Amino acid sequence: MPDAYLSKWRERAALADRNRQLSDETLRELHASGLLALVCPRRVQPTLPGWPTLVRSSRTAARACASTGWLISLVGGHAAIAARLDQAFETKLYSTGTPQLFASASAGPDSRLSMEPQGMRVSGRWRFSSGIEHATWLILNAPCANHPTAEASERFLVVIARKDIAVLDSWDSIGMRATGSHDVETPGLLVPHHEVFPLQQVFGPRPAGAGHEYLYSVPIVPFITTSIIGPILGCAEGAYALHLQALARQATPPPATTLERVAHSGAQLAAASALFDSLLDRLHASGQAQRALTEPQLLALKRDRSYLTHQCVEAVRRLVEHSSASLMTTDNPLHRHWRDLQTMAAHRDVHWDSAMLASATSALQHSLDADQ
Question: What percent of the chain clears pLDDT 70, i.e. is strictly above it?
Fold first, then answer.
């Protein structure tokens, strides 16, 4: 679906990087093509293709511009959360029309949710809100110590209008600059009680409602945290294609050592692609069967998406490491892909140490149990 726009997104990527946000033209194309609504509530658009298409589309887009792929996969994927809220609130979210965009933000040291007689008070600074400059809604979650059910529900989720928050000009990273992932500030907003949702009720297993597919009934966290592999793999594939093009344009044939590195990186990306398909197939099959992943399956999922990310980083690092020093400039698209890839690889959903430690610990325990 994104293929028709790739040349335009590739041309705009450098300017988007400098401006620290995607262009209005790109946003219009993303909305017009439906790429930001692939998992929006089925009552709003009942014939959309669903989660695997979301991740595959983000992979394709990221070959041209990683930030565009990120907006499709991570920010566009937040629409699935809207469908897991009650129908009356979903109607409110879409009351002005179908094109809605849901940003999210992480709780920071001074982020606060506090219960009052009239509702939930939302205050403080919230971090890393990708796509917030183009969003219509902001999804937040945090603990609320004084909530009557605080012991039963560790965190609570609220959705507030983008117009009611302040966007802080804080996003100045070395990579993924065009995601515009600024911090935001909520000036003591009051959310009514009926619009405050226990997080585990939203994210956990749920009965499938009319017009819903599996994404809105099975536990959603494995899906929304695995979506990151789309822009990661696509970004690495884009970098590899740029390197091949540069070699092909050289006046003299590349030496054998260079060709060996190209082949090595190509093999790593082919392996990462096979793992990508496996991850999507596993999750899609569990969703179709309305079956939550077991704990060993979930740990294997986290291990494999971290390993996929590691292979992508290594494949591109090898190419960048041996490129000419004269090519190490901020406007070199290969190095922009490299910066973007490193930034995505630092995300907690593909954190290497925690994923590998948990997987190995589980495997050892399984081996001990089998011996007894």
Answer: 95
